[in-house]
Amino acid sequence: MSRILIVATAGAGGDLQPLVAAALALRERGHETVFLGDRSVQRVLREIGLASETLPPEFDLGPRLAGAVREAMAATAGDLVAAGPIVQERMASWAKETAGPVAAAVSRHRPTAIVTSLFGVELLQLVSPPCRWAVVNSTFYIGPNPPRPVEQDLGPRAIPLLTRYAALLEAPDLVLHATDRIFDFSFDRLPPHHHYVGPLGIWEQPSESPGYIAEPGDPWVLVSISSQIQDDVPLARAALAALADRPVRVVLTVGPDHDPGELAAVPANARVERTISHAAVLGRGALLLSHAGHGSVMKALWYGRPMVLVPWGRDQPGVAARAAALGVAEVVSRDDASGQTLAAATDRALGSESMRGSAARHAARLQATDPQAVAGALLETLL
Q1: Are 4 and 24 in contact, with CB atoms under 8 Å apart?
Q2: pLDDT class for 261, splitting at 50, 70, 90?
Q3: Parallel, antiparallel or unpaired: strands 194-196 and 307-309
Q4: In the sheet where 285-290 sits, what is the strand order?
Q5: What would the pLDDT profile of 122-155 be if each residue is shown by its tens digit?
Q6: Cα separation of 17 and 279, whole Å?
Q7: pTM, entire model
Q8: I need a surface site. Which of 76, 211, 271, 282 has the fewest CB within 10 A?
Q9: What is the rounded distance in angstroms from the CA atom of residue 237 to the CA atom of residue 235?
Q10: How high is the pLDDT of residue 273?
Q11: Ordered strands of the 32-37 beta sheet
């Protein structure tokens, strides 16, 4: 049995789920995993019996990243392009500060291998561990010579940070992209130590599905905004307005960092939750209306559901473009997102036989794969 140290954060949005899925695959193969993470990581792992060690709170990525974004936006009067380098510099400072405690943990645990997320690549590069290590990237391919210019795939504020991480991906021994190659424009020019493993991010923390989901009635539409603070509450308001008079039932998830009370007017056909199993809703639903987060989009694709996507920032323009290229999504720009435009896009998506057929075909293809097993087998090559 080998010991794998997993350096994890839950503050970047979507990074933790692929790491947990990979850890569960390694555990099934008889290996010991120990997570080194922040307090939000510990809360998730406690429920599923994975060992963890918590870093001091001053190293929590979530508050540091949110603070960096706020500082950058204030310093640049909201200029997204000018804010990007400031965010990148603050994250470099976080990596330097956190490298010491992580290096001490590596020395203490003496792991056979280390696994981290894309947000840990600069941190691990500074630690320079004595063992082999891997990065699990939670979105489409990030690295040298991507299939499209980064300016098309990333929000302007995210470009400096993610291009910095892309440049550092020569350092790890292995890079796993937790997405589907066909979804990623069928990209076939990965560097030799990079691999597609499939949508690991569809893993969800076990939870009971609310009884109302199974009640008979109009089809469900899942509306999802970012699980991390991303100023996208206006999207939630526009979506509720768009769906209020449609023959659907709506579940809107606002994430743990938002208060459902931020939405003053909730129509009679809608429910607002902080969190709920997206799989439970999509398994019975008809549509996803979302900010185009990679995790929620891949879940909709896994369950064969058409989508209406409003990319808000980060990697979301690239995610939305890939879903549209597969013929499974209507894309509405952030600037054009209103109750009227979202209602029209919803009508087109729900009424499109072609879109439903494409979504069903990709769901069948994906469900014939086993992303966790693929990830586990590749990570074992480090041992």
Answers
A1: no
A2: low
A3: unpaired
A4: 270-273, 249-253, 220-224, 285-290, 307-309, 329-331
A5: 999 999 999 999 999 999 999 999 999 999 999 9
A6: 14
A7: 0.93
A8: 211
A9: 5
A10: 85
A11: 51-54, 32-37, 3-7, 113-117, 132-137, 174-177, 194-196
